[in-house]
Amino acid sequence: MSMISMYGTTTCPYCERAEALLERQGVQVNKILIDQVPQEFNTMIERTGLRTVPQIFIGDFHVGGFTDLYRLEQSGDLARLLAK
């Protein structure tokens, strides 16, 4: 199973939704809280080119945000990605 990393903040409702969705899939999320570790904000921007959270990675694959993750779940592609 792939490693899941998610850049987020402690106050982001979409981060909470993304984490809950992934936990329902039976995976553990490595949360990188950019409001508690500010240098990670720059790392997130370097990796994604984006400044919004959540930013979710399955392994090295950049999923995007919560809406992107939800679309993957609805299409069945999330289960295939997680199985790799």
From TrEMBL:
Keywords: Cytoplasm, Disulfide bond, Electron transport, Redox-active center, Transport. This is Glutaredoxin. PROSITE patterns: GLUTAREDOXIN_1, GLUTAREDOXIN_2. Residues 4-63 form the Glutaredoxin domain. Belongs to the glutaredoxin family. The keyword Cytoplasm applies. Has a glutathione-disulfide oxidoreductase activity in the presence of NADPH and glutathione reductase. Reduces low molecular weight disulfides and proteins. CDD domains: GRX_GRXb_1_3_like. InterPro entries: GLR_AS (IPR011767), Glutaredoxin (IPR002109), Glutaredoxin_subgr (IPR014025), GRX_bact (IPR011900), Thioredoxin-like_sf (IPR036249). The keyword 4Fe-4S does not apply. NCBIfam families: GRX_bact.
